[in-house]
UniProtKB/TrEMBL annotation:
The keyword Signal applies. It comes from the Bacteria. Keywords: Signal, Transport. Signal peptide: none annotated. Belongs to the bacterial solute-binding protein 1 family. InterPro entries: SBP. It holds the Pfam family SBP_bac_1. The keyword Oxidoreductase does not apply. This is Extracellular solute-binding protein.
Length: 420
């Protein structure tokens, strides 16, 4: 514990501070907990209110919340986890797919017991909970989620005689084909949007890579993954998305704002950027979950977001767990979701955002959320990204089976090289 003696103690932080009086003769000892959160994950007002509430409920604790930038955060977190002593962070926000790379070195606290006994692990969103595991132990505690939905033009749907959003893949293809006429694109889907492809592959029972006997290998050549790619090909053809670029080149918000696109697949927040670029679309945009193979549940989607971890070198385990429990608990997690238009970390909390159309669609999809393969070496695959090249080749007319095998081999090679 960090002892603050003699006088008035002020907690320095990038957003907020707390002060406490500590006596020399065994009186109340103020302990400071350092929490690293990422830029823009929570508003300044949210953090102020949370800190006041937490410190009121925990009279012996002060919070020192320090805001971090995503750029270069991996190296900074690794350095903090390897440091000696108790001067580093007690709680760290990390990307949900980053947990394995930090847990691999044995420098995070195993929170499996608390997760099962106290924190409702069975109700967590799988796309946040599963990548928070390493070697069957829970190190990352889900905080918030965001995932893709379909953003659509309500007016173009009405003009095409489509009265309700599609709920199945077949309905989606039929509707998109009807919308793809008269100079309008049924959907704008870039050829290298591999996160969207991943959802279709997962729906079919496939994966990007699989582990067998402790060894990871590419799995794009499986029959299930090939079916997912075939659906992507059929859907992508109902618009003019470039086959050799991803959704950011050009940014699809700008394309959608040009008024000749009926649908895109994106996070709901992108609607705000669309309306800023074309104010005439205000009130004309709607949202629905990415359809699944059957109407009883939405399609699988990649779930992005953040987990909270506790470094093993914390000198206040009890206090760190209290912070995690408060931030991820129902009260403040619901408040965060409402404030920032996120999906709460538990499926049972989805009703808390049901009055916001875009977030409600996102929450429905998040129940089927998944994450990238849970290997610390997946970053090497994303850096090289043979999945994008594979998609471009198939959409350009190449044989899907042979190209999938080529891409799988490259994924296997990258995972193996990075492991050496």
């Amino acid at each position: 514990m960090r002892h603050r003696l003699l006088a008035l103690v002020c907690v320095s932080a990038s957003l907020l501070s707390g002060c406490g009086l500590v006596s020399q003769d065994g009186g109340t000892e103020r302990r400071t907990l350092t929490v690293w959160l990422m830029k823009d994950s929570a508003s300044q007002e949210f953090l102020r209110r949370f800190t006041e509430d937490f410190e009121r409920a925990h009279p012996g604790l002060d919070l020192d919340i320090r805001i971090q930038q995503w750029t270069g955060i991996g190296e900074k977190v690794q350095t903090a986890l390897e440091a000696d002593g108790g001067d580093g962070p007690d709680v760290i926000e990390v990307g949900n797919t980053q947990v394995p790379q930090y847990a691999e070195g044995g420098r995070l606290l195993d929170l499996t017991l608390e997760s099962m006994r106290d924190w409702g692990i069975r109700d967590w969103l799988p796309g946040l909970a599963e990548p928070g595991q390493w070697m069957s132990q829970q190190f990352g505690i889900p905080w918030y989620a965001a995932n893709r939905v379909v953003i659509y033009r309500k007016d173009l749907f009405r003009q095409a005689g489509i009265t309700e959003p599609p709920r199945t893949r077949d309905e989606w293809l039929d509707a998109t084909e009807r919308l793809d006429s008269g100079g309008d694109q049924g959907i704008y889907l870039a050829g290298q949007d591999w996160y969207t492809l991943s959802g279709f592959i997962w729906d079919e029972g496939g994966d990007l890579a699989k582990q067998s006997g402790g060894v990871w290998a590419g799995a794009l050549h499986s029959e299930a993954a090939l079916r997912g790619m075939d659906f992507y090909r059929r859907l992508q053809a109902l618009g003019d998305g470039p086959v050799d670029a991803d959704e950011e080149h050009p940014p699809q918000a700008g394309v959608f704002a040009q008024e000749d696109v009926a649908q895109i697949v994106a996070v709901p927040g992108l609607a705000q950027a669309i309306v800023r670029q074309n104010p005439e679309l205000k009130g004309k945009l709607g949202f629905f979950p990415v359809p699944g193979k059957s109407a009883d549940k939405p399609g699988a989607v990649f779930t992005g977001g953040s987990d909270l971890v506790v470094p093993k070198n914390t000198d206040d385990r009890e206090g760190a767990l209290a912070v995690v429990e408060a931030l991820t608990g129902a009260e403040w997690n619901t408040e965060l979701a409402r404030t920032m238009n996120y999906v709460p970390n538990k499926k049972s909390l989805a009703k808390a955002v049901a009055d916001e159309e875009g977030v409600a669609a996102m929450a429905a999809g998040a129940a089927q959320g998944r994450a990238t393969p849970g290997t610390p070496r997946w970053g090497a695959v994303e850096a090289d990204n043979p999945i994008k090249e594979y998609m471009t080749r198939v959409l350009s007319g190449a044989d899907a089976r042979s190209e999938a095998r080529r891409a799988s081999d490259r994924i296997t090679e990258l995972l193996d090289l990075d492991a050496r």
